[in-house]
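If you are new to this repository, start here. Below is one unmodified record pulled from the training split, so you can see the exact layout before writing a loader.
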Amino acid sequence: MPRRSQKKPNTPPSRLTWSPQTELIGLEFELVPEKDAYLYPQYTIGLHAWFLDQVRSQDPELSAYLHDGESEKPFTISALDGEITSSGRQVKLSASTSYRWCVTALSRRVQEWLAQWVESLPSVVDLRNAPLKIRSCQIAHVPTTYAELLNSEHGETLTLKFLSPTSFRRKGHHFPLPVPVNVFHSYLRRWNDFSGMPVDQDAFLDWVDSCVLITRCQLTTMKVLAGKKGAVTGFTGAIEFGLTKEASHQSEFQQLFYALGKLAPYCGTGHKTTFGLGQTRLGWTSEVVQDIPDVQSMLAKRIEDLTEIFKAQRKRTGGERADEIASKWATILARREMGESLQVVAQDLGMPYETVKTYAKLARRALKIQK
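And here is the target side for that same chain:
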């Protein structure tokens, strides 16, 4: 474990403690801009990068694993929750207004780092010239373990609400519906990677397909920005799952079904959960939970439209590589049209500047051909 650092001056007080045996925990930060702050629409990339940089400064080995590890990511971060509005080509955060930001840990190693980090939190979250003061930090999801989730009490149904747009990958495309197999496959992947109690995936998902019912749902879909590349169509809202009478014939799967539902607030649902998508809570809501600023929706729609154009032009080559290039071209060109510099785009995408510059030229040329 990395050496504990001394508390820095002018950092927010923190008396958060939890058992060293903890495997799952969620923290909520209250962030306040001292003056009006203007962020680029894909600001969650900055939150993601800032968090990993915090890890890197204290534990480079853990940071490398979180960034490059081939397993499921053992953490999530949310977007900012609060009064966010469009301002031209940017999103605006209002001075002296509180914004909530959540970080969760899905493994003992990550929670150990969080326990050390909260003892000496920095004074601000710095999002590219938009410092957000950390006013407070508190526990949002109680410290627990996978075994405790498995053995906890439960009701007859399982109800989940999706606070931020949620989507899955299916046959190379985004799939914005909470079909039970997709939902529980999402949770099972994290469970099998981090719980130390792996379950046969095919057998469990066959049981889900046969025994899990949707008893009610209320959903809204929207186009949103998704991490470093492209845009997705995601859903928000709520869903209630129930079980058939035959479900009890495999009681171990029935027990896991409820445990995975309680895992959802920690691990999120679907993909891009380390960039703010798929934030999930237990319970029901009849309201649209998160408003997406117009500028974000506009950019997401532009990226999606450009991606389809570039995919159509490259259909002869086909394959995942062609689709990936089309998505990168679309993202780079759309963000450049929004006034962002290619240097900033290159930094966000983790690509060499010259490559991004070349892709921008090729995308503009391809767009002229299409017209």
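Two things worth knowing about this chain: The chain has eleven helices and 14 strands. The radius of gyration is 21 Å.
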